[in-house]
Amino acid sequence: MRGLNALLRRELQRYWRRRGDALQAPLIFCLICLVFPLGGVPSPEHLARYAPAVIWAGALTACIFGLEALYRQEMAEGWVDAMLLSSWPMPLVLFFKALVHWLFTGLPVVLLAWPMSRALYFPADQVPAILYGLLLGTPVLVLLGGIGAGLTAGMGRGGLLTSLLMLPLYVPVLIFGAGCGVAAHDGLPYTGQLYLLACLLVAAVFLAPWASAAALKIASESS
Amino acid sequence: MWLWFHRLGSGPTFYPFAGRLAWIFAIPGLLLLAHGLYGALWLAPVDYQQGEGYRMIFVHVPAAWLSLFVYTSMAVAAIVALIWRMKVAEAYIVDAAIPGAGFTAAALITGMLWGKPMWGAYWVWDARLTSELILLFLYFGVLALDQAIEDKRQAARACALLALVGAINVPIVHYSVEWWNTLHQGPTVSKFDSPSMDSRMLIPLLELSLASTLLFGTIVLVRMRATLLWRERHSRWVREIVESGR
Fold first, then answer.
1. Out of A151, A172, A200, whose CB is closest to B158?
2. Is the pLDDT of residue A88 over 50?
């Protein structure tokens, strides 16, 4: 238990010290949300229709950019090797790491999605559909992304490769997450999509840390 | 049985075995291909609705079948590679991914060419088309990961993990996309009790699917032989093979 506390404190401190870096992901999210009105027709009905797609495109991109911070430095510093050698169960360690990572990169996106969806003229009383979807979906993105980030952790520059590996795997989250917003926009119930997202979240919580641990182990074998 | 299995996993045993197996796959594969093509292009009757255009099915379905079959087989090889660290299974993953990506691209392109006259559009955002496209990107991911890692054994293990994660994800992707949008015709082949196809069409289709699978086996075995020779180029058995000129 004390080890767990220390681990959590270390992670929180690590992100807090470089909070400027952690803010990059939410900023990219905002910028992508601004690109669409500039690139398309800024009329309320068009923007509101496409708001869920825009918000989710932004969330996916922000998450992928953020993944770089997950293991790259840990790998270079030898933290990964130390953890693999320790008696700690690696999947558990990685789960808490992903949790802290989500707190600093995912949660701001969820919070910023409120003003952003309003800026895209999404109906105010339906905004919770987007927020609930993001709240359930972004942790899945981080947990799944850990697998890709783990596989590319040992490379000098793996950011682009991580996005190539991960985006196809993000499709179900995108469909159900954005589906929430689309259904809400049309005044339909969206609890079904939320349940499916919750399903994906449970599956990701229980499976992804193991796969991430295996990925990091493979990545650390080279040196 | 287990001893044989383990021995097969090593280069010196696998190399000659794969050479023979490649021929065992190639000969019936080519014969079936010839017979199937004759049946498909000459004997099979014209479709009452789609005319001659339906004959695209004889290329489209084998390609689509192989795109899924190859990915599944890669996932099985991935399990073997990750658990037993068999070099042959490691070689299979990447060597199967290239023809697999080719078959996926072929399925998409023939589907587009078929869709234009029948549906009136090259591309629709339909469930099966979209999941096939995502499958193509999964193949590209495996290939890109292999390219990015210098150490080829490490690359193969990384690809194995990715293929496995992808294989768990493929059904989820498929059902999520299906739930999202569907237009593609329902299955016509798998309903064996009462197939919705004339047997003069169905038999060449099955023959061609089997022939493509066998020929895929030949291609992948030849590729694996080359990969093993290259990866173990410093070992004695490779030198002996090269010196004896076989």
1. A151
2. yes
Nearest CB among A155, A196, A214 relative to B161 is that of: A214
Question: Helices B11-38 and B87-119, interaxial angle, to 10°?
Answer: 20
Residue to test with chain A: of B149, B170, B182, most A Cβ within 10 A: B149
Asked if A125 contacts A190 with a C-beta cutoff of 8 angstroms, the reply is: no
Nearest to B228 by CA among B242, B217, B243, B238: B238
Read off the pLDDT of each residue in B188-205 and give the average, rounded to a whole number.
67
Q: Is residue B58 packed enough to be buried (19+ CB in 10 Å), middle (13-18) or exposed (0-12)?
A: buried
What the block records as the tokens of A97 is 């790491």
Contact B183, B88 (CB under 8 A): no
The verdict on a CB contact (< 8 Å) between B169 and A169 is: yes
Type of residue numbered A41: V
Q: Which residue has the tokens 């985006």?
A: A167
Contact status, residue B202 vs residue B187, Cβ threshold 8 Å: no
Residue of B nearest to A182 (CA): B180
How far separated are the first and last CA of chain B, in Å rounded?
A: 29
Residues of B with CB under 8 A from a CB of A: 82, 134, 137-138, 140-141, 144-145, 148-151, 154, 157-158, 161-162, 164-166, 168-169, 172-173, 176-177, 179-180
Q: Taking Cα atoms as reference points, which of B71, B53, B99, B81 lies closest to residue B163? A: B71
Locus of tokens 């229980």: A206
Record: contact B154-A218, CB cut-off 8 A: yes
Average pLDDT on A191-211 reads: 92
The angle formed by the CA atoms of residues A74, B153 and B67, to the nearest 5 degrees, is 105
* A151:B82 CB<8 A: no
Highest mean pLDDT among B5-14, B103-112, B167-176, B192-201: B103-112
Whether the CA torsion B184, B29, B207, B56 is positive or negative: it is positive
Q: A172 and B176: CB-CB below 8 Å?
A: yes
Rounded Cα–Cα distance for residues B128 and B181 (Å): 9
Please give the sequence-ordered ranges of beta strands (E in DSSP) within B102-231, or none if there are none. Answer: none
The ipTM, to two decimals, is: 0.86
Q: A168 phi and psi, to 5 degrees?
A: -60, -30
- Residues of chain B contacting residue A215, judged by C-beta atoms under 8 Å apart: 158, 161
Contact between residue B79 and residue B164 where contact means Cβ atoms under 8 Å apart: yes
The answer to whether the CB atoms of A151 and B145 lie below 8 A apart is yes
d(CA A207, CA A143): 9
Rounded to a whole number, what is the distance in Å from the CA of B118 to chain A's nearest CA? Answer: 28
Of A158, A175, A218, the CB nearest to B176: A175
Against a cut of 0.80, is the pTM above it? yes
